[in-house]
Design brief:
Blueprint (H helix, E strand, L loop, with lengths): L12 H4 L16 E2 L8 H6 L9 H6 L7 E5 L2 E5 L17 H13 L4 E7 H9 L3 E4 L5 E5 H6 L6 H14 L4 E4 L2 H19 L4 H15 L7 E7 L2 E12 L2 E9 L6 H13 L5 E3 L7 H8 L5 E3 L1 E6 L2
Amino acid sequence: MLVFITLAKACTYKQRYILPALSGHMQEFPNFEPLTIEHAGIRSTLISCEPETSEMCFGSMFIWQDTYPAYISKLGKAYIIAGDEAFLKPVCTGKGEELAPLVNAIEQECMRTKKPMVFKYVPLEFANLLGRMGYNVNPDRDNWDYVYLTEHLANLPGQKYYSKRKDIKKFMDATGGKAEFVQMQDAHLQACLELNKSWLETKEAQGDAYAIAEHKALEKCIQHFKVLEFTGYVVELDGMVCGFTIAEQLNKSTVVVHFEKGDYRIPGIYQYINNAFARAMLDKYTYINREQDLGLPGLRKAKTSYGPVRMIEKFTCVKPV
């Protein structure tokens, strides 16, 4: 499941500062341009900056653009990314106090235009800096990321994972051991969309607007799968796709799971997908980030049950007027 929640109402650049993209050049701050597939080249820069939070995946920002618009600007050697209503942490190799000049530049512009100053999904180190710069720092527990050791999810060792191993056995029994977990190919993409549509039909009856928005994001993900360098796997059973997962590199040691879908009629399919994906990632990434729980009790219980090795704390930081 992908989660890129809209940013809060800080500098409303949409009203004054959003300009068309310049041919071959990016808008310079304080002007912004809408984030598009043409900006995919900054993906390598994002990864090299070793981000911690799942919101800093370029692919995630882009595929949710229709629902949660994002805008980008250049400030010196840094990239500034904002939603309709707030900023993310600036994208640059600087750390700690080195980010202060960027914050000052953004702050001065917001003061000039009499707009409130808000950063969202702020990791701890940057939150500490903003606190020293006079911001109110508020924990955003519902959006903390769950991070797991890949080897734990792959091997499911010990008593605490007994129920997961049991669920996987149910899946194997239900499928007669015939299911295959294979890397996603072009031929699988439409089948993944169709599987999600069947799930969406059950959700639509409950008026789930988020599920509809997520399907739009999945369509965009499928359309630009190769350009965005997503990692995907499908569960095949009797020649049919009955489950899939799609993920994206966050930094050199971590991959983020954006989508995980399965035929809910098959018992244990989600536990199987989780485990099979981790086994496929064992020699590639030390950690798997499975994003946030959105404050939903069932989701929080499920994510906690897998024993995260670390929670990525996030904060909303607001400069008092």
